[in-house]
Amino acid sequence: MASQSIGIGAAPVQAKDGAARRFYLRCAEFEEYPEESRTLYLPIETAAAAFG
Questions:
Q1: What pTM value is reported for the model?
Q2: What whole-number distance in Å separates Cα of residue 9 and Cα of residue 21?
């Protein structure tokens, strides 16, 4: 898998506001870091599974 060969573990997103944050959390398996922030990450395995 490409993520292993080039070292990508997640796709980061900075939600512009609370509505965007809720959208990302509802529509995909994004994770918050730190909790209750607008910084979200989509694990590469999750993204790859969606396309595979």
A1: 0.72
A2: 20
